[in-house]
Amino acid sequence: MLKSHLLGIMFSLMLMGCDAQNPVAAMADSPKPTTARASIAISMKDDGIYFSDKKVRLGGTLESWKAAISAPSRCTNAKVGAVLCIWDSLGLEVGTEDKQKTVEFVNIFISLPDDFTDPHTVHYSGLPPQAPFAGKLTFDGIVINKYTGFDEIRPKLNRNRYVHCGTLDCSTPQGKFSDEVLLFFHLKGTRKTDAIESIGFSLIDHSAK
After folding, report:
1. Model confidence pTM above 0.85
2. pLDDT, tens digit, for every residue of 110-151?
3. 198 and 185 Cβ atoms separated by less than 8 Å
4. Among 5, 149, 14, 165, which residue's Cα sits nearest to residue 76?
5. Could you give the CA distance from residue 128 to residue 117 in angstroms, rounded to a whole number?
6. Interacting residues of 17 by C-beta distance below 8 A, sequence separation 6+
7. Which residue, 140, 128, 183, is CA-closest to 13?
């Protein structure tokens, strides 16, 4: 079954449900969250994601991502099962599958959804990033920030990505980042002109075929 970038949010909520009384307890062996902005640029081009020119890939090990990003993160402590790591200073979450601990999905938050910042939401202090990405973000050479509308970048994206959205609802445009990775955008509304809230990537599950 094909997975969307909403997997990260669902994964967070699932973990929080296991420890709703103390959401922060779900995180272990990680440094305290920091609100400092790391001077890391993220570039997405061809079939790779680059953190300050260091290439990483979905399907690679979580440790290889940590080495490339080189910024403080906090991760769930799961000796058995999937792991989710959050980079609060980068608005980034990276999740693994549950056997080999290889990276299965990635979400980059350009702005945070309202339910992430609602203090009455149970998962507020737990897993989601505490701040959006505030550095330089480029996709196929196009600079993206919190004001960038989806219709501004769609015509400039590599046509082989086949990015598309619904006629009446364009809230979650999707396409292919590579032969192995799906690409998802999440907009702040349902129109093509709405700003991009987050960009997600997910490995294609070939076992479901």
Report:
1. no
2. 999 876 655 544 443 456 788 999 999 999 999 999 999 999
3. yes
4. 14
5. 9
6. none
7. 128
